[in-house]
Amino acid sequence: MLDVSALRVAYGESEVLHGLGFSVRPNEIVAILGRNGMGKTTLMKALMGIVPARSGRISVGEAEVTGLESYERVARGIAYVPQGRMIFSTMTVEENIETGLAVSGRRRVPEDIYELFPVLLDMKQRRGGNLSGGQQQQLAIARALATDPKVLLLDEPTEGIQPSIIRDMGRALKRIRDERGLSIFVSEQVLSFALDIADRVLVIENGEIVHEDARAAVDEAKIASFLSV
Ligand SMILES: Nc1ncnc2c1ncn2[C@@H]1O[C@H](COP(=O)(O)OP(=O)(O)OP(=O)(O)O)[C@@H](O)[C@H]1O
């Protein structure tokens, strides 16, 4: 569903992603692990069209999106939950989710979004800025789902979030995969979370994918060695 090949991205003269490639199938969660500064956020931004690709190809299903603007990629089925969540703090929970609806052509927030994140139903009229970090993360995922995507990108969703909410989020992401058949691509530094949710794990180091394992045959010690400083 999401196919990336030979992707190169640079900031000015400094190349950060050196021709990397991978795919995420429908109904699959792929986690990309890597230490700070290895290029995870840059990769997410390049997939979303926030930073331009120098070369390479990104496609969603049959549609190539490489040269498209971010909003055009959203229309082709990519949704993005950025690092730090970036919800609208002065808007209510419901209004935040509604900002995703324009893309899907729906008028009301589908009930199944609140089923995935019941806490958001209880807090529908609260301002986004008054939610806890974990609740804001759930809101950011809910808003992304309101666009009815085929591919969901999440950049370090566990960052700064307490363990019980991380478990809830893991359960919700697996439900989203199973019930909606989405392709989910998530960047992480927390190995336990990646192993809990992912069907496949990639490791990024200095802008290249240096290791890949199916979850069923994961070499945990090897992956941990990439993550230790
Ligand atoms: N706007 C920018 N201009 C120049 N260099 C940048 C810019 N953003 C990131 N970089 C550099 O690109 C490299 C990859 O950064 P990136 O943020 O993608 O890493 P990351 O793996 O997501 O790390 P983190 O976990 O800290 O978010 C780093 O060397 C970083 O300094």
From TrEMBL:
What the entry lists under Pfam families is as follows: ABC_tran
Please give the superkingdom of this protein's source.
Bacteria
Alphabetically, the GO molecular function entries are: ATP binding; ATP hydrolysis activity; branched-chain amino acid transmembrane transporter activity
Segments forming domain ABC transporter: 2-229
SMART domains hit by this protein: AAA
Keyword Metal-binding on entry = no
List UniProt keywords, sorted A-Z. Answer: Amino-acid transport, ATP-binding, Nucleotide-binding, Transport
Tell me which InterPro entries the record gives: AAA+_ATPase (IPR003593), ABC_transporter-like_ATP-bd (IPR003439), ABC_transptr_urea_ATP-bd_UrtE (IPR017780), BCAA_Transport_ATP-bd_LivF (IPR052156), P-loop_NTPase (IPR027417)
Which Gene Ontology biological process is one annotated for this entry? L-amino acid transport
What family is this protein classified in?
Belongs to the ABC transporter superfamily.
Enumerate the PANTHER family for this protein.
HIGH-AFFINITY BRANCHED-CHAIN AMINO ACID TRANSPORT ATP-BINDING PROTEIN, HIGH-AFFINITY BRANCHED-CHAIN AMINO ACID TRANSPORT ATP-BINDING PROTEIN LIVF
Q: Output this protein's name.
A: Urea transport system ATP-binding protein
Organism in which the protein naturally occurs: Chelatococcus caeni
